[in-house]
Amino acid sequence: MQRYFAKETINDEYSLPKEMYKHAIKVMRMSEGDEFELVDNNQSVFLMELVLVENNTATARKVKEITKNVELPIDVTIACGISKGDKAEFIVQKATEMGVKKIIFFNGDYSVAKWDEKRQKKKIERLSKVAQSASEQSHRNFIPEVEYASKLSSIDFSKYDTKLVAYEESAKQGEKSTLYQILNGKIENMIAIFGPEGGISPNEIQMLLQKDCKLAGLGPRIMRAETAPLYLLSSISFAKELS
Amino acid sequence: MQRYFAKETINDEYSLPKEMYKHAIKVMRMSEGDEFELVDNNQSVFLMELVLVENNTATARKVKEITKNVELPIDVTIACGISKGDKAEFIVQKATEMGVKKIIFFNGDYSVAKWDEKRQKKKIERLSKVAQSASEQSHRNFIPEVEYASKLSSIDFSKYDTKLVAYEESAKQGEKSTLYQILNGKIENMIAIFGPEGGISPNEIQMLLQKDCKLAGLGPRIMRAETAPLYLLSSISFAKELS
């Protein structure tokens, strides 16, 4: 069933805002009597029924609350070095499907492509829309936030209880216990750092170690910059959601 | 370091075939003294040094054998329903990075796009090249095979000791123990079936159950057809390669 996100708290009746109207009525061709799911600003989800569609407006009525929650049991932020092409969109879409809470894109020392202040605003706006649409598709209760950091060291690492760096050199040296041990422990919120295509610079690694980040290998194969976050998020789900 | 795959057994000297020559000398601009890695038809890997480059030919010499093996400890085949667009390329590239052994694309009952006999040949050729290039990039010892099945029931399921279906209905009903239990057991070779965008039909499910396939949920979120195989492969690596 189609799911949408509302910016406000939902009362018994809800008037569809312009973009939602356009998608529901014009694209999905919904009409009176059709149902959809609506997530409000408190992450509550309601089954809604369209009761009136006329003159470019549509009104829906609350049928019942849906209590199912599909959010990961831990809050996961991924920080990804900016890479070339449409890799950022790919990461946002797939990481959202896999339950990420926040995605930060940073200009890495070794980033081939960088975003300046002007460019980043448009990029983040576009990526936030990708996150919203992927959240609707994967029936999330929450739209992941997408943020920009002009450099890795400007991220506030202090608010995370678990900090991990996916480090290719660790993987090459056969490091294979850090992620396993971390995921077998208690975590509330985690940040995981992934370099751009060119990797993470020695200066960045030193800074991350000073911030108590742990270097981890994600298996023995070399993964592309945009693939590694998906490995991590899948592993977190496997370790924490299946049993 | 650049890695290539040879079709033959490597003697002390190796003359680069046309495509490898083009990539190594023209694209990567390698010259005499430069080194690369070469995997032979027995999955042995050698460090090679270019000793002679002249007149559109290049010869390399064996420096030493590289014994590192990055293959998954179990053979995993994924069978994916044919989906629209370039999703097949995406699946082949990412699943190769994540260690898959074989990928079968099948026309599902609910496939919106289907490949006929004529089209499939070109598709499989193209996808095999994607697999080769991703294997080079991720330093695999093996290029995954890419195959076509005109329908799901024409796949030979008898040769796998573990058979799993990623089934959205199972996920919706909160099924969360099958994959965990399977990966905690002993596996030599596994096949996992993923539906196309439209899902797996009741007839297909019935056939799969008769073949002893187990229905498994891959976490509570709805993933796109091309994302679910990556969840599975990451989980296998996490469960079997990390500790």
TrEMBL record, chains A, B:
UniProt entry tagged with the keyword Cytoplasm: yes
Gene3D superfamilies referenced in this protein's UniProt entry, alphabetically: 3.40.1280.10
Enzyme category, top tier: transferase
Main localisation: cytoplasm
Keywords: Cytoplasm, Methyltransferase, rRNA processing, S-adenosyl-L-methionine, Transferase
Gene Ontology cellular-component terms listed: cytoplasm
Gene Ontology BP, a term: rRNA base methylation
Residues in Ribosomal RNA small subunit methyltransferase E methyltransferase domain copies: 71-236
EC assignment: 2.1.1.193
Molecular function terms from GO: rRNA (uridine-N3-)-methyltransferase activity
Pfam family, one: Methyltrans_RNA
Its job: Specifically methylates the N3 position of the uracil ring of uridine 1498 (m3U1498) in 16S rRNA. Acts on the fully assembled 30S ribosomal subunit.
Protein name as catalogued: Ribosomal RNA small subunit methyltransferase E
